[in-house]
Amino acid sequence: MDFDLPESALAVREGVAAVAAKYDHAYWSRCEEEHRFPQEVFDDLGNGGWFGLCIPEEYGGGGQGLLELAVANMTLCASGGVAGTFFYVTTPGFGAMTLTRHGTPAQRERILPGLADGTLQFCLALTEPDAGSNAIEITTAARRDGDEFVLKGQKVWISNVENADWMVAVTRTIPAAETKQRGLPRTAGFTLFLVDVKEALAAGTLSYTPIPKMGSNILHSSQVFLDDVRVPAANVLGEVDAGFAVLWDVLNPERILAASGGIGTADAALRIACDYARSREVFGRPIGAHQGLQFPLAQLKAKTELGRLMTYQAAWLFDRGRPCGNEANVAKLTGAQVGWEAADQAFQTLGGMAYSKEYPVERIFRDARIAKNIPVAEELVLAHIGTQMLGLPKSY
């Protein structure tokens, strides 16, 4: 067994760290306060090719895999830009990874070069108000009309639509009730489409409303309305009625990238806490010398390293085309938990000063909490582990 990261991943970590070092905590906090997309750091990462790592070289990419993307995201988040994980989940994850694996030659030729150089962005439209985490029950419909499909429905909590050039829209071309009547599998009847966001916005068939939220305000999370959006049949991802296979290949990378963001968040929070604990003196000694503060931080460091290994393993399996659902779920659970716990302990370490916006802990604290709920709720991950890994009965 070889636990050394490949040279490609080490080079990614060094390169992304060099970019991230130009943007301090104050920069990320300003973007958060102003609800402003961090265009400068996004452009720097795009120009350096750090979003196109998984794209084949013939399209201008790095020809690497999900492991390198996870390392890049982990490094960016560890720098303090913890909400930057949305960069890697939305555009490289939803866009580049999906097109590289499932796009037609024409789709790849049209879109991948722009993803490789950072000039195009993506979003995914899956979640719906009445379906929530139960993707099987989505109702957004797509009907055939000649050489086009017409999409109609509503999505919610769609991140980055305001910046996106393209959307992966998850629809039903066979309603859920009809699949039951016809004796088809529950996952039948899904079709994924590439929607030209700007074209649909200009046509007035796509609209969105940002949802005011607690953190991660460097981009919007929105309600999205699809009102007879017309999409060429050539923009189908995978096969009509058989899109769930493509969706699985979206969701596992999403969970692995989310896990890497959680680990990077823990790295950032622990660094802030430890720097403060070394320099802050009370009762004649640094507060970090007191075991009441030192031991919780040490425990979190151990959990962070365990989560890092599981994230690497899940990405390694995915890159080799091997089953990775269990590992992706365990990595996501662990990364989200340790990111939140480290942010919470950093808050405790700084005491009352953590409540002040003079320090970045309050921002990291807010940004870290949502990871326990997205991209899949902690309870659903635990249910997967219980039923699929432990063989326990389902509750439904």
Automatic annotation (TrEMBL):
Residues 242-371 form the Acyl-CoA dehydrogenase/oxidase C-terminal domain. Residues 8-118 form the Acyl-CoA dehydrogenase/oxidase N-terminal domain. Its cofactor is FAD. Residues 123-229 form the Acyl-CoA oxidase/dehydrogenase middle domain. It comes from the Bacteria. Keywords: FAD, Flavoprotein, Oxidoreductase. Belongs to the acyl-CoA dehydrogenase family. This is Acyl-CoA dehydrogenase family protein. It comes from Nocardioides humi. The lineage of its organism: Bacteria, Bacillati, Actinomycetota, Actinomycetes, Propionibacteriales.
